[in-house]
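Quick start: what a row looks like.
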Amino acid sequence: MGLKPMEKVNVKIDGIEIQVDKGTTVLEAAKKINKLIPTFCYHEKLPIFGGCRMCLVYDVKAKRSIIACGSYVYEGMEIETENDKVKEDRKFILEMLFTRHPLDCPICDKAGECDLQNWGTYWGPQNTVLPITPFEKIREEIDWESDYLEYVSNRCVLCMKCVSVCDNINQSHSIYPLERAFETLIAPVNKPMDTTSCEMCGLCVDICPVGAILFKPFKFNARPWLLNETFTHCSLCSLGCPVVIDHDGKKVFRIRSTAELEVCAKPYLGYDAFNTNRLKTPKINGENTSLDNALKYIAETVNKNPSKTAVIVSPYLSNEVLESINSLGLITTSIITLDIVPLLEGFGDYKPPTEEEIKNANHYIVIGDDITLTNPVLTYYMKKKVVYIGENLGRIKKLYPYFIQAKGKDVVDKIKEVAQEGSVIVYSSYFYGEDAKYLGEVLKNLEVEKGCKIVISPPYSNAFGVVNNIKNIYPITKILEKVLSGEIENLIIFGEEISLIVEEEKLKEIFSKLKLKAIFTPFEDGLALTGDVVIPLNTWIEEDGHYDFITGQRKSKTSIKSPYRNTDIINRLKGLLKTDKVEIESKPYDDSIPDWIVRYQPDIWDCSYFSLRSENLTNWKLKNIGVLDEY
């Protein structure tokens, strides 16, 4: 049976007749004909509050003013949005707000993107109508005791969107309204703010219509109208959330959410990593050189014996870069052969559920690592019953899950016990090798036998892109064992994940066996200090590219200009290599993991080799060590 068509109603707005679905608000109906109705407390992703009254319009038939955000259309409704009564209503609301709002636009970071400024310009009073001046501070100041978030009570217009977004989107319930009426303050549930359940997603800052909540690292650094906006997709995990990068073409000043309200601390606090210790010039043995010389050095060494060369690719590379690397004709591997590849071998053909299927689920089963640490935005979708099967109950406790403590393969056994028809099972990371393959087999059986929806959401942005673009991918453990045995003499490494999954002493031993260590990295510290040849690698900030997220293939867009393009560099290297006769053997199906492989456990502040460079994330981590369990 097809879906029953939505009932339509005819409405007239400022003399324009339109037809909209029954149950549409006046505000949303007005948007369809591009009518601007000002708001402070409304956001389409949040429950209707109707507290600011800024969206008052006139219902001709009812002969009274109504709020557009909370009033629903009816057949024959006639609305006026710009008559004298409406203008007086808006002016009065703004008079009340301006009476107590400080006149500090020149030093407020919200200036230029402030709703109060904008609406005041259109509809507000142009002079003071009461004897109280904007300089008289009457509201109590409250210190959130945070290094990242600042609350300025006098600027607050009591829209409550910050509390609503924390409760209804992030669901961490970290702030609440203190006192009542005009004396209301927004307070953290606990202090200091940085060591509470707050996930530092920044949504309270982004959604604030005025400068009441500020992001301290951005404070006094730039004016928004002097920055460029790039609408793109975050490439720090496999969700690909839509974000906005504010930059001047050379430096990232902040990364914030779009109207979708899908952002987490990884980009919000971790944006500074993309400005830190960037490698700008190729190096040979620590000395600056030209790109041509660096590529020639690599090619001359590899061409002596191409079959003894292997490439390690990062799961944070775009599809275009992965395609170029695959065309080099060299044995290629990645850290995803530890976890995602064996998992998919066990599962078979994988097609993730749609975003709507995830959001509309009746219950969820989260297994393995806490997804509030690996893929935080996934938890924004979970508004129903949650079961968590894992070792420790961390930040996911915000969802009030039914917690089943389990470790190792016991996690898989527990899934089989609790999975029901229609369960959405969410997995990010936890198992390696044979255990990951076994999990894949179990998840496939649950999908087939019980109709469960399976969400495999790797902590890396483009793990599925590696699977789809690198043909005959070789297990990374076998490549490293071949280095130790002398069968592999040269490694070309893209990214720095290898330093996170191999014990430090073993990695030193592996590197000591190599004749060539060619490192492609965005940073001049870390692995760059160990490389014979080091070449700058662009991130998703500096180069367009497509990524295979669980929500589908999305494109990231360039923000910061780079003198090099990854694909151009690799194609130039390809032209110098002589790898036509290299035979790449089929990968051995051995998923055993040696004891010198370390299971890297990603965290909200240690999600990748990018985040390890973020001073903001590192400081937040240091403040929270041993504290979180108290909340």
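That is the whole record. The radius of gyration is 28 Å. The CA atoms of residues 121 and 215 lie 25 Å apart.
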